[in-house]
Amino acid sequence: MIFLKLGGSLITDKSQPETARLDVVRRLAEEIAAARKADPSLRVLVGHGSGSFGHVAAAEFGTQGGATTSKEWRGFAAVWRSANRLNRIVVDALADAGLPVLAFPPSASAVATDGVLDSLALSSIVRALAHGLVPLVNGDVAFDTKRGACILSTEAVFGFLAPVLQPSRILLAGADAGVFFDFPSNTNLLASVSQHLLGDDSLQASATIDVTGGMAEKVRTALKWVRADPDVEVRIFSGEVPGLLRDVLLGGKPGTQVVWSDSAS
Fold it and tell me: Helix, strand, coil shares of the chain as percentages rounded to 5?
């Protein structure tokens, strides 16, 4: 069982509102299909970020901070529509590649408390996997018992699903080759990153972890996964290289592996 995230920075042009990188989305879909053809036993749950779709609308309406006024709730709906437009693009690309994809938008069933996912319908996803289908989840809006509304990342959804579905691998495909120690020079790609390295002052101060936006939180979230399940392989790698996604789905090990402990422990 593999969880695969297609990052928002990979499948959209984040410099242009609501601009999908259609050629990349289609290529990635074809690589997933090729991996499934090479290994028919491969079970994959796919997730994707919102990139220049949901994030732009969410920032405009402040949805992550909650919703109480009529304007804010209308914004909540606008963010959903924006995220859904990208989701439809990804669904169509996967289907066109021959994959039996079925979308499970978190907003349909998710409830959070102060931004933390509390509940999400699971039984349909479990049944979809049992019948050889490819479930698709995405970064989405959710109702929140404290804030009224919030934004759920794909990583949050993966974290909720992982204890039930118990993936052996969680693969995070983005625009970067992995985690670099020397951003922005990007000459020192880390083969692995652990809680020891994340806590190092020199790394914390680097743009690798903080200024690039998602990488620090991505690593911290991944550390929670490997701490909860030491047997899961979590890997951050680039989806920009043609053929690399297919290879990693079939067992390749590019990029940076996130581990709870290393030789420094």
Answer: 40, 20, 35
**CA 251 vs CA 89, 189, 222: distances in Å:** 27, 20, 19
**Where do the structural domains in the chain lie, given as residue ranges?**
2-177+188-198+214-258
In 10 A of CB 72, how many CB atoms? 16
14 in Cβ contact with 8 (< 8 Å): yes
* Confidence at residue 197, expressed as pLDDT on a 0 to 100 scale: 67
pTM of the model: 0.91
Distance from C-alpha of 45 to C-alpha of 62, rounded to nearest angstrom:
29
Beta carbons of 260 and 195 less than 8 angstroms apart? yes
Mean pLDDT, all residues of the chain: 89
DSSP letter for each residue of 238-263: ES-STTHHHHHHTT---SEEE-S--T
Mean pLDDT score, 176-183: 80
CATH of 2-177+188-198+214-258, one of 3.40.1160.10, 3.40.50.720, 3.40.50.620, 3.30.479.10: 3.40.1160.10
φ/ψ region of 247 (left if φ > 0, alpha if ψ in -120 to 50, else beta) reads: alpha
Beta carbons of 152 and 141 less than 8 angstroms apart? yes
Q: Which tens digits make up the pLDDT trace of 138-160?
A: 999 999 999 999 999 999 999 99
